[in-house]
């Protein structure tokens, strides 16, 4: 009777098979992830080659860790190569293992052919018995195999069992091989094995998981402590308007700078001597503040080192310099987290309809901290100090009676001789360094378009509608502006730095927009009055409005007009708009001193409004053509026809029009564009342009915040998007809900740099919110009367009538 039998690996062959498979499963992915990647040769940056002392210090700081990194790389390669050598040795050892399982073959044991007769089998058995009999000094085990083989070939029952089961004794036991040596499961060693099992799986593994969980549960995204997020939430809810000094206090109160929560922070006895000296040198540290947690020692130390970094002090000791570099290195992620917490509080404010919450200025003041930390510059200082070799003493040459240069774009727009005359106190090499850095300074242009997606009237915004705002960004270097005149003057540049003068801009924009609308209306009335066919089209529109009341009038004359007017009106109106734009551009080019971003936006809005008016008139004309087609279908209906017959005629005439195909194509094209944008966002790497920041202890990539705001209400409209992949061109869509009250609104799109001062871009856009159309609840399509239901049921009964019912009828 068949059974089961467990066989342990006495020779160790099966254990090698098991160990080799598990070892290879671990080694192959470990090699893929741990093998040092070959670094691509990056192009040399200006920070690596300039003779500016902070650039030299940063270059040596970044290269200081290279020997350690090389040693680590060599060590990892040696360990992985040794592991692969062990794998090859194991594979060779396994290949030498002979298979122990062999099939039972009695013919091979007796050394006879498969077709041997009984007499030949007996003769072979006698010869082998004489040779291997135990009484004659033979091997007893081999003699037993010879006897068993002889019995298998001479006994019919044994021979049939051998052919059926492979064993002359019949079905045998099922063997299970265990890839463990027998001594490991021996009862003598059971206590030792039990202790190892308990120690590994019940003590070591749970302790490792517990330690990992305790460490990971303390952190949120970007490896920021949850205690830090709680501190930010508590401090941001206390006051709605936070200044830049207050934002610095909140940043210094981060739990990452507390030694009790972060083991990377080191408190030294020398801090008690060195920090008071910094207090005397820095007057705005506010070390005597009594508010929690600003009065704690770790917050005072972090705040002192932050102000030392912003004042570009180079008199710090080595220990304090290391602490300052760590704080500055961690500050960018912490500033982003403050912004995220503030935006979450704004969302809660909108949901709960509460008046308590962070204002727009709070978020923007926090954003200003990032370029302050990257450039080691206070926000009150001139942005020209971002350029190398320029100090406070050189700024007096930028502001004289003849000129006032306060912004980098103004300095870039000057001629080379004028720039050199301003910086005549520096050497030629230093001047070339300044120009090389100025050449890579970012210059971003932005165009804005908006509409209501998946709607028939995209440009009509109703209350509560979801507005899709599309921003097209084009980034180029400031070298494109060298030896060219800027299209904006100094007053417009100051407005572009996001100061408090934005509200005055909005008022001026609205007044200028009203004036331009009046002039456009006057011009359109003069052009339409000069054309005779425009009067006919207006009369035709009035006739089409009264067409629903009066039916049966002839359509021959209006058809001819409808076929001609749409194309003519559009072409003529576009010509007039082009001529107006040419005139305005000529006037603007002749008057550079009056140019400003607001005026350029006004001209853009004028042309856009004109195009919208032409599109609306063309849509009205197309609607009139559709009405004519409806009248044609009504004329094809017989006078003595029933309503059901007339509906069938109308449905047959209006099966599918080319406009429906166009709508389907437009919808498909929009869907494909959205899919392409999603794929681009998923595949984009977070690499843009390297920032020139010699005082920042790491390599920094350009990043930008993009958001929509209402300057008049001091409100944030959309969640800020953190862009880290703006290399050349990019297109971003932002969706926001339209206001719930009808009226005229002016919003501002803001692109703010987290690495540079004086690189921000703003663009105002205005729109009118109309009341939403009421949904028709009494449409004839949904009017089901009882008579119609009865007739339909009767028709269905007649259709499925039986033969008996028809006979009765």
UniProtKB/TrEMBL annotation:
Question: What's the superkingdom here?
Answer: Eukaryota
The record ties this protein, via InterPro entries, to: C2_domain_sf, DnaJ_domain, Ig_E-set, J_dom_sf, Sec63-dom
Q: Does this UniProt record's set of keywords contain Glycoprotein?
A: no
Q: Which residues form a coiled coil?
A: none
Per the record, GO CC terms? Sec62/Sec63 complex
Name the residue ranges with Basic and acidic residues bias: 509-518, 577-595, 602-611
Q: Bias regions of kind Low complexity — which residues?
A: 519-535, 557-574
Provide one Gene Ontology biological process annotation. post-translational protein targeting to endoplasmic reticulum membrane
- For region Disordered, the annotated ranges are 495-664, 780-809
For this protein, the parts annotated as crossing the membrane are 15-35, 74-94, 191-213
This chain belongs to which protein, by name? Answer: J domain-containing protein
Species name: Rotaria socialis
Taxonomy of the source species: Eukaryota, Metazoa, Spiralia, Gnathifera, Rotifera
């Amino acid at each position: 009777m068949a059974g089961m039998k467990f066989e342990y690996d006495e020779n160790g062959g099966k254990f090698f098979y098991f160990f080799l498979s598990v070892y290879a499963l671990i080694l192959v992915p470990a090699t893929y992830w741990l093998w040092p990647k070959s670094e691509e040769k990056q192009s040399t940056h200006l920070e690596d080659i300039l003779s500016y002392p902070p650039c030299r210090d940063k270059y040596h700081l970044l290269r200081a860790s290279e020997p350690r990194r090389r040693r680590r790389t060599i060590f990892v390669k040696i360990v992985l190569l040794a592991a692969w050598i062990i794998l090859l040795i194991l594979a060779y050892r396994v290949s030498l293992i002979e298979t122990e399982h062999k099939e039972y073959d009695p013919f091979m044991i007796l050394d006879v052919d498969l077709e041997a007769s009984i007499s030949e089998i007996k003769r072979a058995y006698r010869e082998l018995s004489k040779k291997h009999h135990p009484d004659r000094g033979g091997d007893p085990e081999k003699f037993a195999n010879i006897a068993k083989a002889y019995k298998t070939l001479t006994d019919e029952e044994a021979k049939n069992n051998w052919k059926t089961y492979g064993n002359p004794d019949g079905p045998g036991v099922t063997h299970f091989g265990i890839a463990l040596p027998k001594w490991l499961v021996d009862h003598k060693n059971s206590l030792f094995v039990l202790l190892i099992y308990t120690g590994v799986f019940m003590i070591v593994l749970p302790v490792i998981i517990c330690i990992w969980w305790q460490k990971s549960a303390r952190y949120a995204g970007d490896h920021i402590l949850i205690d830090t997020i709680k501190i930010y939430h508590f401090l941001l809810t206390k006051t709605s308007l936070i200044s830049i000094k207050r934002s610095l206090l909140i940043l210094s109160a981060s739990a990452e700078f507390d030694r009790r929560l972060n083991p990377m922070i080191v408190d030294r006895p020398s801090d008690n001597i060195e920090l008071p000296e910094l207090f005397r040198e820095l007057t705005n540290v506010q070390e005597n503040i009594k508010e929690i947690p600003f009065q704690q020692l770790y917050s005072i130390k972090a705040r002192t080192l932050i102000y030392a970094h912003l004042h570009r002090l180079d008199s710090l000791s080595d220990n304090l310099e290391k602490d300052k570099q760590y704080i500055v290195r961690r500050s960018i992620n912490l500033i982003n987290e403050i912004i995220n917490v503030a935006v979450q509080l704004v969302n809660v404010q909108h949901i709960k309809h509460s008046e308590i919450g962070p204002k727009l200025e709070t978020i923007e003041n926090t954003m200003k901290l990032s370029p302050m930390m990257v450039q080691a510059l206070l926000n009150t200082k001139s942005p020209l100090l971002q350029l190398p070799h320029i100090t406070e003493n050189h700024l007096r040459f930028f502001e004289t009676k003849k000129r006032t240069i306060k912004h980098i774009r103004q300095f870039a727009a000057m001629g080379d001789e004028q720039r050199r005359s301003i910086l005549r106190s520096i050497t030629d090499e230093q001047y070339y360094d300044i120009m090389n850095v100025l050449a890579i300074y970012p210059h971003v242009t932005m165009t804005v378009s908006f509409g209501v997606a998946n709607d028939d009237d995209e440009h009509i915004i109703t209350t509560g509608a979801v507005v899709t705002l599309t921003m097209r960004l084009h980034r180029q270097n400031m070298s494109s502006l060298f030896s060219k005149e800027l299209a904006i003057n100094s007053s417009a540049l100051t407005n572009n730095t996001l100061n408090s003068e934005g509200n005055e801009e909005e008022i001026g924009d609205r007044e200028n927009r009203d004036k331009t609308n009046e002039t456009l209306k006057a011009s359109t009335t003069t052009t339409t009055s000069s054309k005779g066919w425009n009067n006919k089209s207006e009369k035709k529109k009035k006739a089409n409005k009264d067409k629903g009341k009066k039916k049966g009038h002839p359509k021959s004359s209006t058809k001819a007009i409808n076929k001609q007017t749409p194309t003519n009106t559009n072409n003529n109106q576009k010509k007039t708009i082009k001529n107006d734009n040419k005139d305005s551009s000529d006037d603007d080019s002749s008057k550079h001193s009056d140019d400003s971003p607001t005026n350029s936006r006004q001209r853009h809005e004028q042309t856009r409004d004109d195009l919208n008016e032409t599109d609306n008139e063309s849509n009205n004309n197309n609607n009139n053509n559709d009405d004519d087609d409806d009248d044609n279908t009504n004329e094809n209906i017989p006078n003595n026809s029933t309503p059901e017959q007339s509906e069938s005629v109308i449905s047959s005439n209006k099966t599918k029009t080319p406009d429906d195909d166009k709508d389907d194509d437009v919808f498909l094209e929009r869907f494909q564009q959205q899919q392409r944008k999603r794929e681009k966002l998923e595949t984009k790497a977070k690499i843009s342009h390297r920032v020139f920041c010699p005082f920042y202890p790491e390599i920094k990539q350009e990043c930008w915040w993009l958001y929509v705001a209402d300057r008049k209400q001091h409100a944030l409209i959309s969640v800020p998007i953190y862009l880290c992949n703006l290399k050349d061109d990019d297109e971003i869509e932002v969706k926001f809900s339209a206001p719930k009250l009808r009226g005229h609104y002016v919003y501002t799109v803001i692109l703010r740099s987290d690495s540079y001062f004086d690189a921000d871009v703003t663009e105002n856009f205005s729109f009118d919110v109309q009341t939403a159309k009421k949904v028709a609840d009494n449409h004839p399509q949904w009017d089901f009367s009882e008579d119609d239901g009865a007739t339909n049921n009767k028709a269905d009964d007649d259709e499925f009538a039986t033969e008996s019912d028809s006979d009765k009828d």
